[in-house]
Amino acid sequence: FAPWKDPAKSPIVRFENVTKKFDDFAAVKTVTLDIFEREFFALLGPSGCGKSTLLRMLAGFERPTEGRTIVAGQDITDLPPYERPVNMMFQSYALFPHMTVEGNIGFGLRQEGMAKDKIAARVDEAMAMLELRPFAKRKPNQLSGGQQQRVALARAIAKKPRIVLLDEPLGALDKKLRQQAQFELMRIQETTGTTFIIVTHDQEEAMTVASRIAVMDKGELVQVATPGDIYENPKTRYIAGFIGDVNVFEGKVSAVSDGCVEIDANDGYKFKTRSSEPVAVGQQVWLALRPEKIRIAHEQPASPINAIPGKVEDIGYLGSISHYHVRTAPGERVTALRANAAHAVERTINWDENVWLDWPVDAGVVLTR
Ligand code: ATP
Fold first, then answer.
1. Ligand 1 atom closest to the CA of 168, numbered from 1
2. pLDDT of residue 9
3. CA–CA distance from 166 to each of 33, 152, 153, 195 (Å)?
4. 38-90 pLDDT, tens per residue?
5. Quick check: helix, strand or coil at residue 192?
6. Ligand 1 center to residue 142 CA distance, Å?
7. Can you tell me the ipTM of this complex?
8. What structural domains does the chain harbor?
9. Distance from the alpha carbon of residue 27 to the mean position of ligand 1, in angstroms
10. Ligand 1 closest atom vs CA 46
11. Of the residues 19, 28, 49, which should be mutated to test ligand 1's pocket, given the most ligand atoms within 8 Å of the CB?
12. Per the database record, which ranges form the ABC transporter domain (predicted)?
């Protein structure tokens, strides 16, 4: 499981039954959620699921149709944005083109009427933290995308807000820069001890940066948990499929015993999985199985439980690992993953070869939805 970053356990943000309607359309539906002080929290979901709307209600740019927003114990539902202890960093960065880096970073502080020498000190501190000092006198159009992103972040933290809101902050960066920037965000969040709430549709990004993730679907919260818990124990097929690769087998429960569920899969196989999900014999269920939990081998396993034969249809070679797409007898395609370092001792598996797939009883997750 991914490490829990030990945020203090007091909720700094509380959404209470928050609903946002645009005319008849509910973009956010009765969301109740606690976010804790010093957490790096991610709102994750596909385009249009309502994650930006939820964030914008916290910033004060949208007003909930129903429900309350509480920050640090204070009901802020009716406060204007500038009176809230939050600061938002936008995907477009929204930098002022005519101002220098220094000018942009200090903008919010000047608006507040802070003394000049204090502003200069704060701006310098933020520039140092984001390694922007060499660019202090440049204008935004003289900076790379990654540098502009850092200026926007420096501006968001310079006011020392209690909560920093990030709406797809790295959306404009290419993959490599994006990964670097993710670690930078984590470093800044940790050094400043500020609560960060990020909106992203990128599951890898949420898994990397966040201590907890809320997965949203069609305006609803579907699961709130640590990245490790969401990956290992997704609650629904939607979440299992949205976070990482997964194989899903449909079937009916044939027996429940000793904390294990036995499943007669629709394709004729019998599976057995350790599970605490309350299910009844005869109930329709799905077995979700991550590719890396499946062993792929030429030899038939000793036990017939959780073992299926198939033929390798194609292989995705990714250097350190390979994905094996295996066509099983009833026509399903199952993906197994194997680390290539092991090839030195294992026989290579090639295209069109007959193989066996098997996995232990604690490898899969039984889902009812
Ligand atoms: P994306 O990642 O594409 O921004 P999202 O999950 O952040 O998606 P939201 O921007 O929160 O989604 O939008 C949720 C839904 O609400 C969408 O269907 C959107 O069209 C709708 N919506 C958002 N703002 C408004 C508005 N001002 N008026 C009408 N509908 C809106």
1. 2
2. 60
3. 18, 10, 9, 11
4. 999 999 998 899 999 999 999 999 999 999 999 988 999 999 998 898 988 87
5. helix
6. 32
7. 0.93
8. 11-240 (3.40.50.300), 245-367 (2.40.50.140)
9. 7
10. 6
11. 49
12. 13-243
pLDDT of residue 265: 87
Residue with tokens 């005519």: 98
The pLDDT value given to residue 345: 54
| Amino acid 332: pLDDT | 83
Query: Which atom of ligand 1 is least distant from the CA of 219?
Result: 14
Across the chain, how many H-helices and E-strands are there?
8, 20
Q: Copy the structure tokens of residue 4.
A: 């829990």
Q: What is the pLDDT of residue 10?
A: 67
Determine the residue of 22, 58, 200 to mutate for testing ligand 1's pocket, defined as the one with the most ligand atoms within 8 A of the Cβ atom. Answer: 22
Report CA torsion sign: 232, 234, 240, 244.
negative
Provide the token pair at 28: 């956010």
Instruction: Output the CA–CA distances (angstroms, integers) from residue 13 to 38, 156, 191, 226, in the order listed.
Output: 11, 18, 20, 17
Residues 93-110 have pLDDT tens digits of 789 999 999 999 999 899
- The Å distance, Cα 219 to ligand 1 centre, comes to 10
In this prediction, residue 103 carries a pLDDT of 95
Cα-to-centroid distance, 216 and ligand 1 (Å): 13
Give 90 Cα–ligand 1 centroid separation in angstroms.
15
Check residue 268 and give its pLDDT.
82
Q: For residue 51, what pLDDT is reported? A: 95
Write down the pLDDT at residue 344: 55
Q: Ligand 1 centre from 23 Cα, in Å? A: 13
Take atom 9 of ligand 1 and give the residue whose Cα is closest.
Answer: 50
Rounded-to-integer distance, Cα 161 and Cα 252, Å: 52
Neighbours of 47 (CB within 10 A): 7
Residues with C-beta less than 6 Å from any ligand 1 atom? 22, 27, 45, 47-53, 201
